Amino acid sequence: MDFVLGIVVAAFAGLIIRALVGIRSQVDPRVGDDPIPAPPQGVSDGSREILYELSRQMPEDVAHPADLLNEPAFQRGTRMLTAPAYSIDEVVGYAGGQNHVLSFMAIEALARRSDAADTVDTLIEWIGPTSPFGQFFMHRAIKAQAPADRPVIGEVLIQISMRRPEGWLEFMPSVDDLRQFASDRLDGGETPSFGPDLGGMEPDALDHLKKLLGALKDRRLRRLREELDEWQTGHVDIEFLKTIGRVHMSKDRHAPDTIIEHPALLKHVADVHTALTSDAPRSVLLIGEAGVGKGAVVSTLAKRLLHEGWTVFEAGSPDILAGQKFIGELEERVRDLVRQLSRRRRVLWVIPSFHQLAWAGRHQYSPVSILDLLMPYIEQSEVLVLGKTEPGAFERLIQQRPSCSTALLGCRVPPLSERETLSLALQWAELPVHGGTVATRATIIEAWRLAQQYLADKAAPGNLLHFLSITLERLRTESAGAASSASPTATARRIETGDLVVTLSRLTGLPASILDERAPLDLDALRRHFEARVLGQPEAVQCLVERVAMIKAHVTDPTRPLGVFLFAGPTGTGKTEIAKSLAEFLFGSPDRMIRLDMSEFQTEESLRRIFGSSGDDERAPTEGSLVAAIRKQPFSVVLLDEFEKAHFLVWDVFLQVFDDGRLTDRRGNLADFRQAVIILTSNLGGLVPTGTSLGFSKALEQFRPEAVRRTVERSFRREFVNRIDRIVVFHPLARETMRDILVRELDAAFQRRGLRNRGWAVEWEDAAIEFLLDKGFTADM
After folding, report:
1. Quick count: other Cβ atoms within 10 Å of Cβ 704?
2. Where is 506: in which H helix or E strand?
């Protein structure tokens, strides 16, 4: 039985050695692809063949690499490679060759040669991916050739951790060999240290290095463990963070600084700084409307923290999600971030639109968001976060995640008063970076009035400062020309009121005749503009002319949309066309009309097309919703076609819009309708009997505008009707009006490219017009 067991053990040992040799060929890029080294100069082919013959004489049942040292063939080959006939470079070539046993002989020869001290760096570089047998001989060579004052233990451990074969740590003979190598070096007087070599290691390699130190179990290596812990505590992998977001750097002394540190700003900065740096630090959430200066708080605080040795990293949910394709990648990225952003490293993570984390990352296979992954670390102050959000979004966030109200300290940033804003703008106009005073007090006051009226999507002081900044930048660009080579700080002429009007017109689409109080509004020309597009509807034309005049005079209610109108009456009478003409005149293009067919909003689920997706449904996009469209372009005409067909919950939503001009979606994003004109259309009370037998005159005789208004008032709730500025009744078209429309349409048809370029002329007789009117008109359409 013992004899049989011995055979089995010997066979198993042979399998182990073949497997270990195979490991090296799989993981070592130097093995398997290199050509056989050429015979060394001065060495005969016979000598070369002797080396390869000696390598073939090695037994296959070697259980440990030390056993090779006792093999006569191995000893002879080592002596040959130790002889001066082989140069160091030639021996190194064999050490990196594809013959494993010959490689071991060459490495052992390097351990014995007196001229091999310069090979230590090469051996350390190779030791990571090498098989356990190869590492055994490399340990011997490095131990023999490295000076006692060189800390090679740390170098070897780093290389093994960075380029280890899979499962290496579980192979105990290799760990024992490494432990003996470290012990011998320590006995020889080496003072262990990693030095600067820890930089650039991947997180996984650092984890493996820590496990490897634990496996060595030598108290004399405690210094390496302490050094690793200290390095991990204080080191931040800036390059890794840059692959995800932005890392704030020390202020460039040549970069212009346009942030004015006024008292309100400094107070917010001090409050946040205290919360982050106290003995019990807490993450902070800046809560304020767009424009109040949350970004200025972050920039000023970052400058202070950088001076104190902190790292400030900025990334939002889109940055974290970028490039994540497979399940589990997001969780791994968040773990890597948390590892790098540990509070012990004095790192602050700035998160724009913090509330977006509450749903970012959710999908049909996982209900877990980025915020769910981060909250445990935020609650324990393991990661320090400075988030930015708006009041509406914050309220929605607290409803969904009540723990946020305790885990993060809320810091509300209110808008500045008019006096504070004007004072700040006057200081901005005097900044040295501008090269002189760029705006007078009178100009700044006019800019403030225009910003309050037309740029209400941002709060003070951001609305005014942004308005002045882009005006100044436009003037500089225009003065420099298309091929400008001027300095970005080149002096521009002072901003005048006319310059403000031009900038505002480009921002909003509103014509200068509306924006500039000094320019008169030609009401007759405006009336002709509408009448040329819509015939036979004088009431509608007059309604829109009056509204445009009110917008020009700045007497519309600033808390509501610019106008809310209900156009009621038969279909085909110009309700949509006059809405397009209003968008073209007021905002510069008919494309500035957002049209919703309310017959598609007959269910409660259709609310999603208004609000976008909810915070609990990441799959449903917000793009394409009414809220998203208005956030993108608040200066628009919103046409709600056939409004009476919508679900009653949709009516309630628009009741809110008509009342205060704002709408918050399910993710807390605010849409501002106060710069939009909203037009509802309806066929209520405007239907006439179907068919062609009812002629023009009969349709006109039976149509009663009062009946249309009564029908509208009975169909909608009183509070809804009360929030409509005016109900405009569109009348059925008279035969004379239809004749004018027909002639206009025929003229337009023959201006089409396929007809305009033909060598012919087209004329029509009155009889043809009458024929088309008789055959092509029905009172109901």
Report:
1. 12
2. helix 497-508
Count of alpha carbons within 13 Å of 18, Cβ hemisphere only?
9
Residue 495 has pLDDT above 90, yes or no: yes
Q: State the CB neighbour count (10 A cutoff) for residue 301.
A: 26
Per-residue pLDDT tens digits for 653-704: 999 999 889 888 777 778 999 999 999 999 886 554 444 433 444 545 556 7
Contact 330, 336 (CB under 8 A): no
Identify the bridge partners of residue 285 per DSSP, sorted by sequence position: 387, 410
261/310 Cα distance (integer angstroms): 21
What is the reported pTM?
Answer: 0.67
> What phi and psi, each to the nearest 5 degrees, are found at residue 638?
-105, 115
CA distances from 298 to 201, 294, 310 (A): 31, 6, 14
CB 333 within 8 A of CB 320: yes
CA terminus-to-terminus distance, the chain = 105
Distance from C-alpha of 178 to C-alpha of 153, rounded to nearest angstrom: 9
Segment 99-138, tens digit of pLDDT:
889 999 999 999 999 999 999 999 999 988 888 888 899 9
Q: Can you tell me the distance from the alpha carbon of 476 to that of 486, in angstroms, rounded to the nearest whole number? A: 9
* CA pair distance 341, 462, nearest whole angstrom: 31
Positive or negative, the Cα torsion across 433, 434, 440, 446? negative
The pair of three-digit structure tokens given for residue 111, joined into one six-digit string: 């351990």
**Would you state the torsion angle of the CA atoms of residues 283, 289, 293, 299, taken in this order, to the nearest 10 degrees?**
40
For range 705-727, the mean pLDDT: 88
What sign has the CA pseudo-torsion 195, 199, 203, 204? negative
Residue 604 corresponds to which tokens in the numbers above? 């409660």
Which DSSP category does 83 fall into?
Answer: S
Q: What is the pLDDT of residue 658?
A: 94
Reading the block at residue 155, the tokens are: 């170098």
